[in-house]
């Protein structure tokens, strides 16, 4: 210890010693800073930073050593060999570079310590090479304990410095690393200087030295300039990096705080790293508390009010998904009724990013629309869609030795009540009938409103017998026939019921419904107010339909069909933008036969394919001849979609007429998509690829569904005329129209209101954002020969 103190106090210039320590401190600051840059980089960028760091550290250590050597003032001249002097510089840069590379590659703490020790060994090697470059007129003797101490100081302190630098990434870690490495360099040098004793020998000549102190000063000056240049480069790079990071952080903060979702980032242990204000709002956890929270804290029911029975298990699922690099999507319900969608995405370090979104209002809106699409707007009973689902489920169970019964009900004398007392009384009567029907059912039975005054019931079960169904039908006849008091009016109606039984009368929904319908008509024919089971002999109506079928087969050949057109107007501009083609059958004896009478027959017999082809060809031909390039809408039957010939028919109609595909619009009902078969969806996409537009017709009547709007990107939604009719008198009709037009706006789909008959309806539809209108208020359907007459605006009410 005395030898070290004596060496420093009597043989060194303290001003140059202070300069050496200052250069050393600056060098270690640069070395640790560049090491941090290398830590944050990968690949070639990391190698570039390590190379720069190795050069910087080498020059810094080398300059520190030789400035300290200039501070050494022995009583004799000193010279330096150029080769070893330069070699010492190279060794310092090479070994510190290799050591830092190994520190970054180390997979364990002992390996990190060993790599840091290598850097300390490089410092010592540089010093002793520099000592070896000294040429002095003296003999050197060494104190080996001090030599070993100098080596230990360099290796241990450098190992500590880079261990801290590798595992403590905060500012305090950087400070400790800088101070430790500074002491490693300075301690190695001055301990080693104290370990050597110079015995002056005037007989030794140093006249041919390569470097004398003056020339060494020049070399050191150049080295320091280069070193300071590297420091400047580092400082500029660091400043630019920090500025870029500051800007990026500002942009990130702005993005985070303007997100509609709550965002929180977690480390691999489930600790919160960062979050935005929306996350605080959704979780109801104060920001100060959230900063010190873990995932378990956030999931805790005491803090968030979330209905999570097993927070630890839920947290384990999230952490497991993050470690497997898998996303996780789940819904969390709060005690206050709010519904939160939580989505987690994994990060490379095992942590994850979680986003929270309050979807309560969206969920309720979706559920409301979904409910409306599957329930009758007036009675809130299931509509045809839900009835069909329930029936199909019951028939599936029939295949497992259960029985099922279908009861089709038609109200007797309801039409006269509607005509004499008005629709409002009729609506109230329907609601009361629905309430009474529900009261007659067992648990598991379903009643649906399937038409104006038509209802249907499904019963099923293993112990279901015809006597049970008969008892229910008798009870319904009795209950429905009991007097009603509606708006001060005493009303008496009845009901006729037809029953089909599965599996005896069939196991296919369509057949069972048809058989129940036949039985219902027999009940009406037998005096009404009663019920009948289906019997194979109930074919009178079927005979009449067969006669109609025979006449229908020849109608096309005899050219008895013709097309009428009804204009569709843009509600904003008032211009006619489209014509809907409506088929009419002019029978030579019966006169005009309503489409509702012959279209079902055509669908059942398959004639609809030929008739549909004719309608397509004729409508395209007529449209191509119009003076204005209007679109033409053609109704399509579900039967047509079961044939691959439909695509060829559309292509042929467009090709023959030379009508642009974009001017043809095909209207389909939910029945087309009811089975959601790949063939049906494939046909729709092929038609779309031709350029033809597809619209959803009769939306809201039970033949449309939000689910089907998701199955295929429709070009238009047509609101059924039943809702338009009640628009001015019923709040629920207005609510449905508002919901559908809102749905159209959300999906970017135009909405067309059918059956518009009054100016008041037009004004309400305009207010609700409906885009197109059609109905008798503007024009009734007219023959093709009168289209140009309609386009001229004569006898046509124009929306303005």
Automatic annotation (TrEMBL):
GO terms for cellular component: membrane. The chain crosses the membrane at residues 14-35, 47-72, 78-104, 111-130, 142-164, 176-200, 212-236. Residues 402-536 form the GGDEF domain. Signal peptide: none annotated. Gene3D superfamilies: 3.30.70.270, EAL domain (3.20.20.450), PAS domain (3.30.450.20). It comes from the Bacteria. CDD domains: EAL (cd01948), GGDEF (cd01949), PAS (cd00130). InterPro entries: Biofilm_reg_signaling, EAL_dom, EAL_sf, GGDEF_dom, MHYT_dom, Nucleotide_cyclase, PAS, PAS-like_dom_sf. Residues 545-795 form the EAL domain. Residues 12-199 form the MHYT domain. Pfam families: EAL, GGDEF, MHYT, PAS_7. Keywords: Membrane, Transmembrane, Transmembrane helix. This is EAL domain-containing protein.
């Amino acid at each position: 210890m005395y030898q070290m103190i004596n060496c420093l106090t009597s043989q060194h210039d303290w001003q140059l010693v202070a300069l050496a320590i200052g250069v050393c401190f600056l060098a270690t600051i640069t070395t640790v800073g560049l090491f941090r840059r290398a830590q944050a980089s990968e690949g070639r960028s990391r190698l570039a930073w390590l190379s720069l760091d190795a050069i910087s550290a080498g020059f810094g250590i080398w300059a520190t050593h030789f400035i300290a050597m200039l501070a050494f003032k022995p009583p004799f001249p000193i010279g330096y060999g150029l080769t070893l002097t330069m070699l010492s510089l190279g060794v310092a840069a090479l070994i510190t570079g290799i050591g830092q590379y190994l520190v970054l590659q180390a997979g364990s703490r002992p390996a990190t310590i060993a790599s840091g020790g290598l850097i300390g060994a490089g410092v010592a090697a540089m010093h002793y090479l520099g000592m070896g470059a000294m040429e002095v007129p003296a003999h050197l003797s060494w104190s080996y304990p001090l030599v070993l101490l100098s080596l230990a100081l360099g290796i241990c302190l450098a190992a500590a410095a880079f261990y801290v630098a590798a595992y403590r990434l905060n500012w305090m870690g950087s400070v400790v690393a800088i101070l430790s490495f500074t002491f490693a360099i300075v301690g190695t040098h001055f301990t080693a200087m104290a370990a050597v004793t110079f015995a002056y020998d005037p007989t030794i000549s140093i006249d041919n030295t390569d470097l004398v102190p003056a020339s060494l000063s020049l070399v050191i000056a150049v080295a320091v300039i280069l070193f300071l240049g590297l420091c400047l480069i580092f400082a500029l790079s660091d400043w630019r990096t920090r500025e870029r990071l500051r800007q990026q952080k500002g942009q990130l903060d702005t993005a985070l705080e303007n997100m509609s979702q709550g965002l929180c980032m977690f480390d691999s242990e489930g600790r919160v790293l960062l979050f935005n204000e929306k996350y605080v709002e959704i979780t109801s956890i104060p920001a100060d508390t959230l900063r010190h929270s873990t995932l378990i804290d956030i999931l805790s029911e005491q803090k968030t009010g979330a209905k999570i029975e097993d927070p630890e298990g839920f947290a384990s699922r999230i952490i497991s998904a993050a470690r497997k690099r898998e996303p996780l999507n789940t819904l969390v319900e709060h005690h206050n009724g709010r519904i939160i969608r939580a989505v987690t995405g994994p990060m490379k370090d095992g942590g994850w990013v979680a986003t929270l979104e309050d979807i309560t209002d969206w969920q309720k809106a979706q559920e409301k629309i979904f409910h409306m699409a599957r329930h009758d707007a007036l009675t809130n009973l299931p509509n045809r869609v839900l009835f069909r689902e329930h029936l199909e489920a019951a028939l599936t169970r029939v295949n497992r030795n259960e029985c099922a019964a279908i009861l089709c009900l038609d109200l007797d004398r309801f039409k006269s009540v509607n005509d004499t007392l008005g629709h409002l009384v009729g609506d109230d009567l329907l609601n009361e009938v629905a309430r009474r029907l529900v009261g007659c059912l067992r648990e598991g039975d379903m009643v649906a409103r399937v038409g104006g005054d038509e209802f249907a019931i499904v019963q099923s079960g293993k112990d279901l017998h015809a006597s049970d169904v008969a008892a229910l039908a008798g009870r319904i006849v009795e209950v429905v026939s009991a007097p009603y008091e509606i708006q001060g009016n005493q009303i008496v109606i009845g009901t006729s019921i037809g029953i089909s039984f599965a599996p005896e009368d069939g196991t296919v929904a369509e057949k069972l419904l048809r058989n129940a319908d036949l039985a219902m008509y027999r009940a009406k024919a037998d005096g009404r107010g009663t019920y009948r089971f289906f019997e194979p002999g109930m074919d009178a109506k079927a005979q009449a339909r067969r006669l109609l079928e025979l006449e229908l087969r020849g109608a096309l050949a005899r050219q008895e069909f013709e097309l009428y057109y009804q204009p569709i107007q843009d509600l904003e501009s008032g211009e006619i933008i489209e014509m809907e083609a409506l088929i009419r059958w002019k029978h030579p004896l019966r006169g005009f036969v309503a489409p509702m009478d012959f279209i079902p027959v055509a669908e059942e017999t398959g004639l609809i394919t030929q008739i549909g082809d004719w309608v397509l060809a004729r409508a395209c031909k007529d449209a191509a001849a119009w003076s204005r390039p209007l679109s033409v809408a053609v109704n399509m039957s579900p039967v047509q979609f079961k044939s691959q010939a439909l695509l060829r028919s559309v292509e042929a109609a467009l090709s023959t007429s030379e009508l642009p595909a974009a001017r043809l619009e095909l209207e389909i009902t939910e029945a087309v998509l009811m089975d959601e078969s790949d063939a049906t969806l494939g046909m729709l996409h092929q038609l779309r690829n031709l350029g033809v537009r597809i619209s959803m017709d009769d939306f809201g009547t039970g033949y449309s569904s939000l689910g089907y709007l998701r199955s295929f990107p429709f070009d238009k939604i047509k609101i059924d005329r039943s809702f338009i009719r009640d628009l001015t008198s019923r709040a629920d009709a207005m609510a449905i129209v508002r919901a559908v037009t809102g749905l159209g706006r959300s999906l970017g789909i135009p909405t067309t209101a059918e059956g518009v008959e009054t100016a008041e309806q037009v004004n309400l539809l305009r207010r609700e954002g409906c885009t197109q209108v059609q109905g008798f208020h503007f024009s009734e359907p007219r023959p093709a020969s009168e289209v140009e007459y309609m386009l001229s605006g004569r006898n046509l009410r124009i929306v303005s």
